[in-house]
Input
Amino acid sequence: MEDYVALGDAQLLADVVIRSDHVRARTGRGELSSAIALEVFRQGAFLIAHQHMRVPLDWHFITKNAVLRWSRWLPSFPASGEMRYQLDVRVDIETKRGRPFLLMWGLRLLYGGRVVADGELHGWTVAPARYRALRRTALAAPERPARPQTPQGESGAIVEWDDHDPFLLNRPGDHVVSMILIDAVLRAVNAEEIRLRSFEMEFRRFAERTVPVYLLVNTDHAGVSNVTFTQSGEVVAVASTSSEPYAV
Output
């Protein structure tokens, strides 16, 4: 994001520049990728939270829900150069004991004044001391386990990721962060090669780095995919996507 202007205490408009040489910028069909759009949403949400809602920089955000809807009109993303967008961000906030607690963002991504995508993010803000108490049994950036056989009661594929991928992990974490699971959904439904119309995800509990996370996806004939993440027999997140075929 290059710059932004405040449109009130709870709204801002940010300039977004995305270079085509970013490894995740374009889909196989030459459109802006859902992974980049969701990350732009996240960064816009953090920006307004810190700059306008005065959430301290060292507080943690715990994602509850993420929603992305693509419009019917999408500009082609060039194979070289860059694309310039604008991000319209609004936020509502609930407080507890006078401090920010639950934030609910509404977001719109625009190109040339036209909306290309919109969505919502919901999440909690947690002070450092509270977060340490919440995660006291977790180790910071622990070693990941060797790939095991699927134990009884688990089904699906083991979620894999690269700990050195700066797009997914910009700092060490004590759990499997939301962007890793979002990326796993998009890869599972082959979002780079289909026209994704919508994405919705709910995070139900922390996914630990020390135990394998399993992904199971079911897709129907209408192009709706339902994705479930489990760990140690518990559901940690669920997602749903809808898509449509490209015209031949």
User: Anything to note?
Assistant: The chain has three helices and eleven strands.
